[in-house]
Amino acid sequence: MGIEVSREQLLREQERSGKSIVGFSGERGIDPKMLYEQRRLRRRRKAAPTFVRVPLGITVTVELQSGIKLTLPLESLNAVLRELEAR
């Protein structure tokens, strides 16, 4: 019975090797798509937002360079900022 290596372990080995995902995968006989997917999942986990609970009723006013002022509940600020960054 062989030893099963986790996808995360394989990705760490690939990174330490200095080889490309395609080159590393070819040597190991594994599908490079699996390592690309693992890397994408890792990045998504690290990028997950963290939230701090704040009392309700606090509002924030943000003034954009264009002169537009937004007044919104503090708990909505992260969502608004993410949307603005995406543009």
Walk me through this protein's architecture.
It is a single chain. The protein is built from four helices and two strands, in the order H-H-H-E-E-H. By secondary structure, it is mainly alpha-helical. It has two domains: 41 residues, no CATH class; 38 residues, no CATH class. Helix 1 crosses helix 3.
Helix fraction by DSSP (H/I, runs of at least 4): 40-55%
Mean pLDDT across all amino acids: 83
The string of secondary-structure elements, in order, is HHHEEH
The overall number of domains is 2
Alpha carbon gap, first and last residue = 52 Å
Strand content: 5-15%
| Shape call | elongated
How would you write the strand order of the largest sheet? 1-2
> Spans with pLDDT under 50 lasting ≥5 residues?
none
Main beta sheet strand tally, sense and closure:
2 strands, antiparallel
Q: DSSP helix count?
A: 4
Number of strands: 2
By secondary-structure content and strand pairing, the structural class works out as mainly alpha
**Rg, Å, rounded:** 22 Å
Question: Which quaternary structure do these chains form?
Answer: single chain
